Amino acid sequence: MQRLNKSITHAVDRPVKVMQFGEGNFLRAFVDYIFDVTNEKTDFNGGVVIVKPIEFGTLERFHDQECQYTLQLRGFVDGQPKEITRQITSVVDAVAAIEDYDKYIEYGTSETLRFIVSNTTEAGIVFDETDNDPNARPPKTYPGKLTQLLYKRYQKFNGAADKGLILLPCELIADNGIELKKCIMKFIELWGLEDGFKDWVNKYCSFCPTLVDRIVPGYPREDAAKLCEEWGYEDQLIDRAEVFGLWVVESDSNLPLEQLEKELPFKEAGLNVVFTKDHHPYKERKVRILNGSHTSFVLASFLAGNDNVENSMKDPVIRKYMEETLYNEVIPTLSLSKEDCEEFAKAVIDRFLNPFVDHRLLSISLNSVSKWEARCLPSFLGYVKKFNKLPKYLTFSIAAL
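Given the sequence above, the corresponding structure tokens read:
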């Protein structure tokens, strides 16, 4: 059987506009999918180059398939199961920051590069003072690598204003863009780089805090052979995710919101991307509605005899309990509009009904007390403050812990 390649996908050659640190399932099912659809639906015409930032792992499968892969999105939408299968062609190359250092720097200092995306895990955006060699090939930390790359770009283009980059970190930490910039400023200080470079980063590079939301189970080991037989080609990079996906991107002081929307025409492509001057209300909505509802019903549902989230939503008692909690006790305490929150809650219920994602209640229940404090207590206190009485269902959720 022929391996998936560009002759099968009919991929179009595109200039590299996006550098992506991380080759994992999430970015491929989320960011690369978004750019793939944007290429199809708009005149964005940008390719993604994947960078493997650490020594561990190999890019052999990417090279064998010319960076082409198949993505399956499976879920529940408007009460009905939905499945989308798409060949992703937005990735044009994959390089290792260590083994392919010169090529990696070449991409990072190219004329066409405009965006850097990353998912280096929560531990990736850290400042490490032992990463003290600005001439390393490359520095060991992600912020160190990025500082060096930006410095080489600054040098090549003599500090040109139009050669700054827009950085879109997807790491699951609070204010990821702000934290990434703080690390880079510390490396500039540690390495003794000139003030001109520091000014260039401050004035012409934009560090956009983002919020990402999509469940990505990843490679379907049990179904892969059957799927390849069905498609008529071999694919060692199959990726699977839920249909729902949300990217909230906050503009920074260097980048007016209108310009950000113009440079990233995701809305024109019909994608569920929100551009905003403040992402915090959207994070609050996600934590309190999605994560908070999990925490509020999971143990009560387990005690009622259910074993996963889908079965919980099919239990009329648990379903009613969760909906009463969300619509009557959580949403009234949120800062976004009631309409926005109710629309998100409806999507959350569809996600919980997804038969393709087996969310076990006991795995969700780990560290439930600390989770309740972070996810449910703010709604609890907000309700008491607003209505001067205890929220019945959130109060019950404490008893079920």
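The chain has two domains: 6-278, 281-399. Try to locate this feature in the token string yourself.
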